Amino acid sequence: MAPDEPGGYRGVFRVREFRAVFVAHLMSLLGVVVSEIALTVLVYRLTGSPMLSALTFALGFLPYLLGGTLLAGVADKYPARRVLVVCDLLCAACAAAMVLPVTPVAALLALRCVIAAISPVFNGTRTATLADILGNGDRFVLGRSLLRIVSQSAVLTGFGLGGLLLAVVSPRGALGITACTFAGSALLLRFGTKRRPARGGDSGALLRSSLSGARQVLADRRLRVLMLLFWVPPMFSVAPEALAAPYADVIGIGPAGLGLLMCALPVGTIAGELYAGSALGPATRSRIVLPLAAVTLLPLTVYAATPGLGWALVALTLSGAGSAYTLGLDRWLIEEIPGELRGRAMTLLTAGLMTIQGVGMALAGLAAEFFPVSTVVAAAGALGTLSCLLLVAEARKTEERDGADRNMTSG
């Protein structure tokens, strides 16, 4: 089947290598979710410190930028399968070291940082490999969509399942399960995917290769705006999630209502992805990228009126559904990135996305110290929409420029 031959999500699953990547993603994602909960609980039990417990969770975000910037060259300098397997094995070793009773709290936090620094390299390499497995066309878009849907589903169910697991086993026992999931993912990738040669990239030192790749990607006007279209909306959309608990207090709803507020955005995201991936064709998904990106944060402005639970859920679900623009954007990006830069570009994309969400959460929390929660969320929607409109205008300009360049070349 050619890369652009229609087949929907079912057609993607017919590719044997993708099935291995998909199951490996499920396993490593399970490991990450379980380790986040188990390690947070373990650190709290060892120290009795809420601050250290919260820091343990935050360390899942902070090293992303470091790892994604300084280690991105790994994704192109070495064969992709080797990079993926080694990343999984390193994470398994870190989780196994956390299981040891003699491991002190400082070492637990350091190991958490190592796993977080490895994650963008793993995710970027896997995304680049996905293009090798599925091609640069529609199957790549749908494959990426499936991995995102799984990740969003983990937001809904993962922490609940992790909590249930800790009712049965100790935190260190749960970390032992995490080590096994990473090892299982490594085995699947080793024996379920083909060996492909390294893409090459910069032949110099790793640090220089990583930084030069980031410079090349961000110096290209078209690539830069496409990356920002991935990064900017999530920076603002995390505001209602970060402030869900205080907003629940404001409108007087209990824990069940708070749970609904936390679930609405990922539910909308999953629904939007599934609809766009299964009901819309590649051309339509491409046409809706910029219109959807322009308005995806607009529903959050309803918070200016301090809506009750029902209207807040509608706004959050609509905003989440708007993120379906990323399916078409995935194809634009993969078609623009030179092959020798693909691993580094995708690693940078992952690192930037996680980092900017952490920044967005921190800024939303800081703003809520000085302004009402509803005002902060509404402002995030308004400022985010303005930012997206500027990016959409820039994307149209670069699209016209690239089209003119191609026409001149062909002439």
General description of the model:
The protein has 411 residues and is mainly α. The protein has 2 domains: 1-192, MFS general substrate transporter like domains (Growth Hormone, Chain: A); 206-411, Growth Hormone, Chain: A, CATH 1.20.1250.20. The protein is built from 19 helices and no strands. It has helices at residues 8-13, 16-47, 50-58, 63-70, 74-77, 80-99, 105-134, 138-166, 171-192, 206-219, 221-242, 244-251, 255-279, 282-287, 289-295, 309-321, 325-336, 342-367, 373-410. α2 runs antiparallel to α3 (50-58), α7 runs antiparallel to α8 and α8 (138-166) runs antiparallel to α13. It is globular, with a radius of gyration of 21 Å. It starts with 7 loop residues before the first helix and ends with a helix. The model is unreliable at 1-5 and 404-411 (pLDDT under 50).
Please estimate the helix content. Answer: over 70%
Q: So, CATH architecture of the largest domain?
A: Up-down Bundle
Number of helices: 19
Q: Note poorly predicted spans.
A: 1-5, 404-411
Offer a few descriptive terms.
single chain; 411 residues; mainly alpha; Growth Hormone, Chain: A; 19 helices; globular; disordered N terminus
Task: Please sum up the structure shown.
The chain has 411 residues and is mainly α. It has helices at 8-13, 16-47, 50-58, 63-70, 74-77, 80-99, 105-134, 138-166, 171-192, 206-219, 221-242, 244-251, 255-279, 282-287, 289-295, 309-321, 325-336, 342-367, 373-410.
Detail the topology: elements first, then pairings.
Elements: H1 8-13, H2 16-47, H3 50-58, H4 63-70, H5 74-77, H6 80-99, H7 105-134, H8 138-166, H9 171-192, H10 206-219, H11 221-242, H12 244-251, H13 255-279, H14 282-287, H15 289-295, H16 309-321, H17 325-336, H18 342-367, H19 373-410
Helix pairs in contact: 2-3, 2-7, 2-8, 2-9, 4-7, 4-18, 6-7, 6-9, 7-8, 7-18, 8-13, 8-17, 11-17, 11-18, 11-19, 13-16, 15-17, 15-19
